[in-house]
Amino acid sequence: MDxxxxxxxxxxxxxxxxxxxxxxxPLYVYNEDIIRDRMLRVANVITKYPYRANYSCKTNTNLSxxxxxxxxxxxxxxxxxxxxxMLLKAGFTPDRIFYVCNNVSAxxxxxxIDNDILTSLDSLDQIRMFGTINRGGRCAVRINPGVGAGxxxxxxxxxxxxxxxxxxxxxxxIFKIADEYDLKIVGINQHVGSQFxxxxxxxxxxxxxxxxxxxxxxxxxxxxxxxxxxPYHKLDDEKEYDMEAFSKEFTAKLDDFVLxxxxxxxxxxEPGRYCVAEGGVILGRVHSxxxxxxxxxxxxDVGMNVLVRPSMYDSWHDIEIIRDGKVVGRDNAGFEKVxxxxxxxxxxxxxxxxxxxxxxxxxxxxxxxxxxxYGYSMCSSYNTRLRPAEVMVCSDGSxxxxxxxxxxxxxxxxxxG
Length: 417
Ligand SMILES: Cc1ncc(COP(=O)(O)O)c(C=O)c1O
Description:
Layout: H1 4-8, H2 16-23, E1 27-31, H3 32-43, E2 51-56, H4 63-71, E3 75-78, H5 81-90, E4 97-100, H6 106-114, E5 118-121, H7 124-133, E6 138-142, H8 171-181, E7 184-189, H9 200-213, E8 221-223, H10 243-261, E9 266-269, H11 273-276, E10 280-292, E11 295-300, H12 309-313, E12 319-323, E13 326-327, E14 335-341, E15 350-358, E16 365-368, E17 389-393, E18 399-403, H13 408-412
Parallel strand pairs: 1-17, 2-3, 2-9, 3-4, 4-5, 5-6, 6-7, 7-8, 8-9, 11-14
Antiparallel strand pairs: 1-10, 10-11, 10-16, 12-13, 12-16, 14-15, 17-18
Helix pairs in contact: 4-5, 7-8, 9-10
Bound molecules: pyridoxal-5'-phosphate.
C-alpha cells in the first residue's frame, strides 16, 4: 500500500498541516469511523451464543473514545481505580464494567465493591483479601491457561513466565478459599497476551480454559481475554487479522463446550488494541536532519514520552511523510535509509532505525501510523515535556479537540511548598 493516510481517507479532506499548525505538534489524531468499525467487528466475533466484547480501556481512555465504545454497545474492562472512574464518567453503568486487577490494595478493591463493579481476582492472596472485605460477595477468578502469546516477551501474560493469574494446579485452593469466605465465583477469565496475528495459541488457551471451566459449577460467564493483532506493517501489505476464520474456529470450540457443560454461560472477550490502534496517528514535526558516522538522523518532536512502544518493545510503526499538507508518495520520491528519533535525552529515544523512507526534509511532518492503542495512554512527562493534545476527525469530517495539550501551569499545579 502506498499510503494508509490516503487510502483510508484518514483526515477526511482536512489538511494535516493546518491541524499541526492549529493544535501544535506532536498531536494525536483519531478517526472516528475507523474506531467505530473496529468496535463493531469485535462486537460480532461470536454471534451464535450470548457474547459480549469488553473494550480493554487501558489501551486508550480518552473519554470521547470510551463514548464510542459505549455507543457501539460494547462493555469495558478496567485495570485500576482510575480506569473504573473514567468508564463511569463516560457513562458506563457498573454492570458494563469488569475490573481485572493485579496486585491491588484493599482500598482499590473496595472502590469496585462500593460501586457494584464485578472484580476478577488473580491470586489466592487477592481472593482472601476480597473475601475479608466482602464476605459472601460475587467475583471472578483469572486463570492461567498455560499458554501465552504476543509480539514481545513483555506482553505475554500467560504460560510459565508471568506474574498474572492463578495456575491450574491451584484450583482446589480457589474453591477452599471461596468456601471459607462464602464467595460466589460467577465467572472465570484469562488473557494470553497481546498482538497475535496467528490465533493458534489463543485457541489452544480457549481449549484449556474450557476444560478448566468444567470444574466450576454454574458459571455466568467465561471471558477469553483480548490480544487480536493489527497489521503494523500495513505499508508492506501485511494482511489483517482474519476475524472471520477466527470466529468460525472459536465458535466450534464453544459448540463442543456447550454440549458438555449443560448450560450456556455468557462468553466474553477483552480486545483493546484491535479497537483503536489503527484509528489513531501522531503528527510530529521534523526539526533537524544530520549525519553521524554514516547514519542519517531525522530529529522530530515525537519522543519516547509521546510514544514509548518503539523504545519499550522495539515495536514497529509505519511512518508516512507529509509535505505541504500532502503525503509524499512512496513510488517515486527517492528512498533513503534513516533513523527517526525524538527530542528526549536518551539514546534509546528512537522511533525507527535504518528505515527506508521517502527523502525527508526539515519542517516536514511525520505521520506515525497505528498509534491509537498504547500511545497516549502510555505518554509521560519525562524531560518535563508536556503531554500532547488529542483531536478527533469525526464521522461528518469535522475536527474536535478531545483533550487539550498540557500546559506548564498544569504541571506546576501538582507541587506543594
Ligand atoms: C487482562 C487484559 N485484558 C485485555 C487486554 C487487552 O489486550 P489487547 O490490547 O492486546 O487486545 C490486556 C492487555 O494487556 C490485558 O492485560
